[in-house]
Amino acid sequence: MFDILNKYKKQDHFFLKPEQDLQKVCNAPADKSGLYIIYALKKGRVELIYIGHSGKIEKDGSLSIRKEGVGGLKDEIINGMQFGKTPAHIAWKKQMNRENIEALNIYWYVTHDTGYTDCPEVIKRNLLRQHQDIFGAFPKWNKAV
Q1: Tell me, what DSSP letter sits at residue 3?
Q2: What is the greatest pairwise CA distance in the chain?
Q3: Residue 107 in 3-state DSSP?
C-alpha cells in the first residue's frame, strides 16, 4: 500500500506481545529519525492501526533526531506519548489488553541516508492521507492531523 517506503534501505520490524517489554524487543535505531507503522494481529487478522514518526527538518534544512531517553526512533517508539500523556511502553500494553490484540507488528524506516533527507513528519502526513483516501479514515490509534 505504501510503495514510497520501498526506497528506504535501513528498515526492519519487530513483534510486541502484551506480556513482553517494549524496551527489550524494540530494535529501532537510537541515532536515526524516521517513521514507524504498527499493525495489530487479532484473531488471525492484520490491521494497520498507527503511523508515527520521529524527527523533523529544522529551519536550516538539517534533520533533528530525538535525543531524550535512548534517542532517535527507538526512543519515540518506547517513550513517545500515546493516548494522552502516557508513554507508549505503558499505553500500548493497556490498549492491547483492552482490544484483545494478540501482538503488534511494528515496522520502522530510517528516512535519511547519504542520498536523501526526507522529513519523517511529511511522509507520515502523506501516508495518513493515503490511508484516509483508501479506507475513509485515519488508522484507529492516530488522531486527526
Answers
A1: G
A2: 47
A3: strand
- Kindly report whether the global pTM for this prediction surpasses the value 0.70: yes
Distance CA 107, CA 118 (A): 17
Question: Which has the closest alpha carbon to 22: 90, 107, 117, 86?
Answer: 90
Who's near 12: CB < 8 A, 6+ residues apart? 27, 28, 107, 108
Across the strands, what pairs with 12? Answer: 108
The string of pLDDT tens digits covering residues 112-137 is 888 888 889 999 999 999 999 999 99
Question: Can you give the residue range of the structural domain that contains 114?
Answer: 3-135
Q: Could you give phi then psi for residue 28, rounded to 5 degrees?
A: -70, 150
Helix H or strand E encompassing 34: strand 34-42
Compute CA distances 22 → 37, 62, 122, 137, whole Å.
Answer: 15, 30, 26, 27
- Please give the tally of structural domains in the chain: 1
Residue 43 lies in a domain: yes
Residue 141 lies in a domain: no
